[in-house]
């Protein structure tokens, strides 16, 4: 689905959800408003910091898994330029529809698909970079591993994954854990689930905003 098609999801279809045990969000406008409050109106600063960690370069093929309302995907497209491509997938048709409207308004061409993180609709080795921001905590344990192996599968040899989430230290419960049924993920777990897929962890640590932690993994040159 390109940005033009994403605008036209009929209301009835927008209520349907793909079958997943992940926590799928539906109130897309409310989501953007909540982020605005949570970041005190500085969402752009947060997104820029995440994209710096991903080290995007012009011409790269990028996938944003659990892209939500598309803010990060739109900003990523500006970095990869006209020769690069950005695709966003989310289990929520409402999130995809809003991402499409925002991309059209910004005059940015990205590809958006209503699809599951645990069954990515792409061929092996298709992407240079996969982004995964504040999404893993929406998945129950086993699905986190499935999502990580799908990410590994669609990365080309030498490709990178940047995962960011609200990860607190073992034993601690961050604010997000109070709102979500799957709740908490630790940095150690983030490192482990990507390590287990065969990705090499190049860097991990604090993003520098609240509880947010990141993992930057690289697919081995011979997969
Ligand atoms: C907290 S939002 C994060 C959205 C976006 N990455 C961001 O940084 O704003 C988590 C997103 O994951 C999506 N999601 C949950 N389970 C999913 C699944 N199994 N496959 C794909 N997306 C899923 C939700 O619909 C929601 O849009």
Please provide a written account of the structure.
With 223 residues, the chain is of the alpha/beta class. The chain has one domain: Rossmann fold. It is 36% helix and 23% strand. The chain contains eight helices and eight strands. Strands 1, 2, 3, 4, 5, 6, 7 and 8 form an eight-stranded mixed beta sheet that branches. The longest helix is centred in the middle third of the chain and has 14 residues, at 93-106. It is globular and about 40 Å long. The structure holds S-adenosylmethionine. S-adenosylmethionine binds next to loops.
Taken as a percent bin, the fraction of beta residues is 15-25%
Low-confidence spans: pLDDT under 50, at least 5 residues?
none
Q: Can you identify the CATH class?
A: Alpha Beta
The name of the CATH superfamily reads Vaccinia Virus protein VP39
Task: Please indicate the count of domains.
Answer: 1
Q: Determine the fraction of residues in helical runs and give it as a percent range.
A: 25-40%
Beginning-to-end CA distance, first to last residue:
29 Å
Name of the CATH architecture: 3-Layer(aba) Sandwich
Query: Count of DSSP helices?
Result: 8
Q: Would you report the number of β strands?
A: 8
Main sheet overview: 8 strands, mixed
Task: Describe the global form.
Answer: globular
The CATH topology annotation reads as Rossmann fold
Output the structural class: alpha/beta
SSE string? HHHHEHEHEEHEEHEE
What value does the Rg take, in angstroms?
16 Å
Cofactors, ions and other ligands in the entry: S-adenosylmethionine
Instruction: Please state the average pLDDT score.
Output: 89
